[in-house]
Specification:
Blueprint (H helix, E strand, L loop, with lengths): L5 E4 L2 E6 L6 E7 L9 E2 L4 E8 L1 E6 L2 E6 L3 E4 L5 E4 L6 E8 L4 H7 L1 E2 L5 H5 L2 H10 L6 E2 L2
Antiparallel strand pairs: 1-2, 1-11, 2-3, 3-10, 4-12, 5-8, 5-10, 6-7, 6-9
């Protein structure tokens, strides 16, 4: 795992991994009680989440479900979704975006994990405002 690629993004610890295919691959950890991003969709990205440990609540096109370790969620383009860890335990998950390109969002919006108080900084109002105002540049169309 390349720790220099690890960033805190909106309260989630995300590590990007290099791939030779036309997809982005991230491993993420979410502490207990951390909400996800605002409801959004991607015009071109297909997205998959695979839970490794714990559980995460997902909202996909208005339907809410709990996804537990060993289960996955596949999200086609133009599908409204969000997620968050509402449980009392941390969770770990794999995230894939296809085609390649959404990794740039994590790299530009995330706070390097090596930075002091990175978790808290990733939830700062200025960071959240930056996400809200620039998300569409990353094909993340926010619907609140």
């Amino acid at each position: 795992m390349e720790l220099n690629n690890t960033r805190w993004v909106l309260g989630h610890k995300v590590t990007a991994h290099e791939t030779t295919g036309d997809y982005d691959l991230m491993i993420a950890e979410t502490p207990p009680k951390v909400p996800g991003p605002p409801p959004h969709f991607h015009n071109s990205y297909k997205e998959t989440f695979l839970m490794i440990e714990g559980e995460m609540e997902f909202m996909v096109n208005g339907e809410t479900t709990i996804v537990k370790a060993g289960e996955s969620v596949d999200i086609p383009p133009k599908t409204l979704h969000t997620f968050g860890n509402k449980s009392d335990k941390p969770c770990k998950w794999v995230n894939i975006h296809s085609p390649k390109g959404f990794r740039n969002f994590f790299e530009q919006m995330g706070i390097p994990a090596t930075e002091e108080n990175a978790t808290e900084k990733s939830l700062d109002a200025a960071v959240i405002n930056k996400v809200m105002t620039t998300a569409s540049e990353f094909d993340m169309i926010i619907k609140v």
